[in-house]
Each structure stands twice: as structure tokens, then as C-alpha cells.
User: Fold these one by one.
Assistant:
Number 1:
Amino acid sequence: MLRSGEVAKRLGLHPLTVRRWVKEGKIAAVQIRREARIPITEVERLLGEQRAGLLVLYGRVSGHDQQPDLQRQVEQLEQWALVARTGQKTLTLTDIGSGLGTERTGYGVTLTVLSPDEDKTPEEELTQDLLAIIASFAGRLYGLRSRKQRQLLACAKQVIQAKDA
């Protein structure tokens, strides 16, 4: 993240021009307290440069029985990378685990969706978000009914009964 003065130097502009472009939305920026910080990717975009970073392809399924689906996902991702990101170095990561867990182990990254479904209406997006919330809560509720929880509850009842006896 760069300050507007640094961006102005790199672009050969006056700092006030950069600030005006941020206000007009010509340059994407993140507001940090009273100052706008501009991602280096925005400067590269304006200069017509593209960073030759590592492209990470990530596929995930919920269970081991879905291995064919995982393989299909990986093949689709790799095919997309060959066409859309020709020559870029890639790393393919796969994961098998519930999509309900909010804490994933193994990857300390932030995922950014570059091309969300743009053809959805705001109502469709809201409906999809609400269904995801309901599914998450339902998963947690059913998790409370799991074998481990039942065993813990039975043990607690035995302790209470022993104490009352």
C-alpha cells in the first residue's frame, strides 16, 4: 500500500491529481484513518504492467468420497490457467474438508474473488448469502448432535446423578 505522494512520483503526476483520481474512483484505494492508501497493483495497472507472481489454484471438496469431483476441479483450474494466464508459474493446492468450518488449517492466506458472478441481481446475491448463513448455523446445530457431543452429555448426566446420589 502506497501513499498518494509515492504513487504520484511513480506515475509522474502531481499528488493532488492522484488524490482527485482517488475521490473520482479512477484509482482504487483503501482508507486508513484519514489517509487513502493505494495498492501497488493499481499503480501497475495504470502503468500497464503486470506482476509475474505465483498463481495459486485451489480446489476443495467436503469428503473423501468426492475425489473425482476434486480431480475435475483441478483439471478445470489448470485448463483455465493455461488459457487465461499463459506462462505464469502456478501452484495447485487441494483440500478435503467441510466448507462449514470458518478456520482452515494449512493455508495462511486471504482469498480474493477476482471475477464474482456479475450476472446476479442484488436480490439473488442476498438470497444466496442468507442461504449460506442458514446452512452454516444448521451445520453447527447438527454438530451439537454429533456422537462426541452425545457422549459428553451422557458423561455430564452421570456426574450430576452421582453428585445427587
Note: The beta strands are 30-32, 35-37, 55-61, 90-96.
Number 2:
Amino acid sequence: MRAIHLIVAAAVLATAPLPVRAEDSQPVAVSAANAVDAGDLWRRVRHHDPPADDQLLALEARKPYFVLAPAVGVKPTTGINGGIAANVAFISGESSSTHVSSVTGSLKFSEKGQTLSSLRLGVFLPDDRWFIEGDNRFLWTSQDTYGLGPTTMVSDAENLKYDALRVYETIYRAVATNLFVGVGLDVNKHANVRPGTGATASFDDTAYTLYSQQHGFDVSHQASSGTTASVMFDSRDTSINAQQGWLASATYRTFFDGFLGGDATWQEVYADVRTYRKLTRDGRRRLAFWVLGDLVTGGVAPYLDLPATAGDAYGRSARGYGEGRYRGDHLLYGEVEYRDVLTRNGLLGYVVFLNATTIDSDATGEHLFDAFAPGAGAGLRVLLNKKSRMNLCVDYGRGKQGSHGLYLAIQEAF
């Protein structure tokens, strides 16, 4: 059965459209000229005239388009949380030869006393000669922790509080059309680690403490710092709300003991593949596919740096589960999402998604594909900016053992 599933998945992905350059892409779904977004509704309320038609066709070079939206949700990791999220989309050069850049930031507070801030960027310089990618977070947070592997139970949860800093920065150079190679610096620190609210077991008996002591890590603070080598192919029309094209990237990270405070030498491989297929000629109905792998390939990683659910840059994978619900040495993840519009003017849309995570652990002897954590759900889309195709995304997902979450964002999950 496992082989059949893999063959079917490969067949589906093989039918996806061939890669296209951004300048060759054709209008799909609802064009900017006849679409209605939240800004249009606001202008109508204020009885302001709409922009001229020639201003609606595409993002203008070097002119930023800014979206600010509330960020409210209910996630297993945070409980009820709220704050603000902002996105700036722009083209730094000619639109015919330069991808759309995106910078996203957020500041949120949760009922569990967490403060969550982030700044993430994907910036293409003129003519796509260079690409800058960043994943930066500063958190006063907490997280339910579990033992390693795919079969832990909800009743095993032990809450930890900690302060976290992440600075992942990579700069890429174009070496061919849509193909980039890059190098970067990664710093991941967890400090002031302590028992969290509602802890039911002694801190000395938690999975985090036992793992840390077994491998010689300080239980109060841990850090991983090192360098990155990456290769990326990106033919998507935009990273904000892709309609067509491919993203395929592979990153090799090496962390060093003693480098910028790092506590261990270990290696990680991270691979990410995404593609999109139109189901109708006008593109109103589409399928999106996402596969990622996160693998520790050498050494021993600190507990909170091990591959885990929702561990991607934007924390959008494994909708239906909280961050860190499943954790281990190697993780594989797949998702398919159906996307459609509800209104002819493109203002409202919806998605339906299915996902699955499989994870293993050397400590428990469990292997990839021995067990799965499936998730499913649906979401509503509100078009915030028709030039950048930025949506307000409200998703609800469920997983096994009663896991569920409500997610709000201003950029598609993938």
C-alpha cells in the first residue's frame, strides 16, 4: 500500500504544468482589471473614485503595496492569540524580468502569556540577479513537548516556557534562468528554559530534560549556530499567491560547537518542493501540491531544534497540529490543497486541504512511514490587494487525537 501511495502521488505531480517564466505567465482566475478587493470596498464606502484601469494591470516597478491586517487565531500551541500582521509587496526592477518581492512581519500576543514577533523576507533584486531570504523571530513563548517519534499521546504533553531567537539569512545568486545558489548564516537560540503552566511532572522527568541530559546539553539554554549552502529553482509567478510554476529547493545546514554560542556540531538537510495545476482554463479552480523533508543527517541536535510539525519558516505546514506536536530525527510532509473562488469578482474564495506527516526517531527505533499524522480542513479567502494577489486567509484544520486549530494569515500557506 505504501508503494501504491507513492506511485499515485508521483503520477499526480507529473501531470503538473511545465515551469514557466514570470514574464510568460498568462492572466488566470480573475484579472486585476475586473477584480474587487478590500481596498475597492473601502473606496466605495468613502465614495472615492477607483484607480485608472492602466494602474490595475500589474505591480509597478519599485512601488510598494502595503497590507495591514489583524492576526487572530486559535492554535494548539498558543491558544487564542491576536495582534497585527503586515506585508509589503514590490518589484525592485522591470516586471518582465524581476519576480515579486515580499516582506512579512507580525506581532502577536496569546492567552498563554506569549509574545510572538517575526520578520520574514523574500526579496528579488533587479533582473533576479540576487535573491535574499530571511526567517527572523524573537519570542517569549511556551510549547507543549512530547517524547520523540510518531506515536506519542496527547496525555504525554509537558509544557515548557522559554525565550527564543532565530536569525536565518541566506543570499542567493542567479546562475541560470530561475535557478539560484546561495550561502547563509543560521542562529537558533533557546534560553531561560523552565517548566511551563500546568506542568504535571517533575521538570527532571520531561522528555526535553531526559533527552538533553542524555546528550550532554544544558537544560536551561541551548543554541545551534552555523552556515548554510542552498540551491533553489523558482519559476512561480509570485510567492505570495502562486498560480503556476514550480519551487524546488534544497538546503544543507552545518552547525558548529562553539560557533556564535553553538552547543553542538550537527548537520541538517531541508528540501521543499511546490507546484500548482489549473483544473479549469481560466484558472479559477486549482490544485496546489507541497512536499518537504527535514532530516538530521549527522551529529546530535538540541531537542528544540529537531525536525517537528509546523517547523517550516512560516509555520504553515501540518495545519491541524501545533508546533512541535510530533518531533524526531527525520520528517517527511505532504499536502494537497484545492483552491477556488466564490464570487465572480474574485473578492471571496475558499480552499480545502489534506496533509500528512511521518516522522521517525533513532531513540525509539520507529521509522518513517510506520505511522502518520494526517490533517484536513478548509479555509476562507478575502482578496486584500488585487495587484499583489494578497489574501486574508482564515483556515480551520483538524488532526488525530482531537488536535485542531484556527489559523489566520495574510499569505497563502504555500
Note: The first helix runs from residue 2 to 14.
Number 3:
Amino acid sequence: MAKEGAPRGHWPEYLIEASLLGAFMVSALGFTVLLEHPASPLRALLPEPTVRRALMGLAMGATAIALVCSPWGQRSGAHFNPAFTLAFFRLGKIEARDALGYVTAQFAGGVLGVLAVSSVLGALVAEPSVNYAATRPGTSGVAAAFAAEAAISFATMTVVLVVSNHARGARLTPLFVGALVAAWITFEAPFSGMSMNPARSFGSAAGARLFDSLWIYFTAPPLGMLLAAELFVRTRGRLAVRCAKLHHENAQRCIFRCGYRAA
């Protein structure tokens, strides 16, 4: 589908990106309170941290799938992650002004989502065991957190590029993304808190007033995804990348340099 309209007419997609990450943050904080707050009955029933992480992974994986497949996600492409947007910009699928609009909206949406939950749940999200669902390095240290974030970001972007550009597998891209989110939260979170998303980490950090480790989540996810994009281009070629949308089996307009319909 051809790109429609000038960038100045793409503000609905920017607002959607802000709303999608805002919704993701509402889900993340809500489920963190439910699973980690000392007063939560579910927390008392599930004393094993790995079990709680697995449930958190399932919840956030399902959230990601729902957002990508929603009408709004179908419209914007459902990045709600600056690292994704920058990688697709590198791949030549996004205009510079649209990339800037997306990234700005994603950061705003992350902060607004945290503020919305804080206004409703108040002290519950500030409790240390919840701590605004902030992503922080684990006991293995800063270097391990950086390496883990870069690795899962590289793996996720690689899977997205391979699946979304496969003729029969493209429609399954949201399911792959959700499954990876669930797996990373279950198994990688002890190392870095599992972010892959600078705007998601910034939203939580702004709420918790914890900025000392934020540089990890501003650098490692974009680095991992840009490396995956570079590898894909060098092995498959730039023309193998059809579009920047994660869901394209729909009738929504596409504002990207899209080759999906032609393919």
C-alpha cells in the first residue's frame, strides 16, 4: 500500500503510538501491583518468584499481542518502542519526521501511562516491591544488564524481521512478539528487569525518580535492534524489508514506505 498523506497529516498515528505505550504501562503497573505488592492475595499464594515472573510474562505478552492486533495497533504499526522505530528508520521504511513524531509520542505515552496509574493506585505503585515497575540491573551487575538488554533486543528484532517478511508467516508476527515478551520477562528479567524499550523504562524511572541506570535502557535496546537491522540488510538486502508495521493483514492506511501489498 502506498504511503498516504504528508507527515504533517500523520498526527493520528503519533497519538496512537502514545496511547499504545500508555496502555502497556497501565497493564505493566497493574499486574506488578497484583503480583508483587505484599498486601496482594495473589502474592501470598505465589511465594516463588519464577512463578510470578512467568505469570507476569504471560500477562504482558498477551497485552502486547492485544495492542498490536487492536484497530489502533493495526493503524500505527504498533511500535510503541523507540528502538523499533529507529531500527525501521535505519531500514529506510520511515520518513525522518515520522520517526521523530513516533519517538516523541512514545516517550510522552510512557510517562502519561505511569501518571494515570499513580493517580488511581497512589501508594500501591510507590511501594518498594512495586516501585513503578522500574527496570533495574539485577544482582549480576550493570555489565550483565547491558549485555542482556542488547541480546534480547537483537533477538526480538531479528525474529520480527524474519517473520514479518515471510509470505506465510507475516500474519503471525504479533504472536511471536507476545511469546518473546513472555519468555524474556520469565527468564531475562532477573538480569535487567526486561525492558527492550527506552520509553517504557523512562516512564517508570520518572515515576520512581530513579535515573542512575537509565542509560542502559537508552543505549542497549537501540544498539541490539540496530545491529539486527544491519545484519538483516547485509544478508537479505534492503528490498527484503516490506514495511515497518507489525500487523499488515488489515485495511488500515499505511504511512510508511510500504512494499507489503506489492509483495
Note: The chain has one domain: 7-240.
